[in-house]
Amino acid sequence: MDEKLTLGILGLYTVIYLVVFFIQKSQIDRQKDVITSMKSFMEIFKVDEVKKYVEMRNERILHDATKFITDSDQIKKMSDDLIKNTTKPIQEAYTEIMAQRYEELVRVVFQIVINQEPERREQFIKDLLPNNEHYLIPMLKDYENKIV
Length: 148
Prior knowledge:
The protein has helices spanning 2-44, 47-71, 73-114, 121-128, 133-147.
């Protein structure tokens, strides 16, 4: 009886193993089908093409935003005001600095002018300094009047 019981248990184990084997085989076959369908689905989307599409879309959005900013009157007005308010102090500082430099240069030029022979001074200014003639000739006249 022991042998029949052992043989029965072994037969039962074999049947259970066969059932488990067929269940696992059917699951593996289903997984293969899922993997195959996923491969075909992924082939539809080529990653490089998707990247190109996203880049094109981003460029388009950037272009639209730039166009909106450049076409907007309110943005133009704000940027003009900002530029004016930002550059005005710089222009004032530059004007002040340039005025000081101009004064220095005028003094040096005037010293060169008065070192010329008295009858040649006015012609020297007209020939070599025509852009500053309107300023230097009155200075020269004042200088000559003070000497005489």
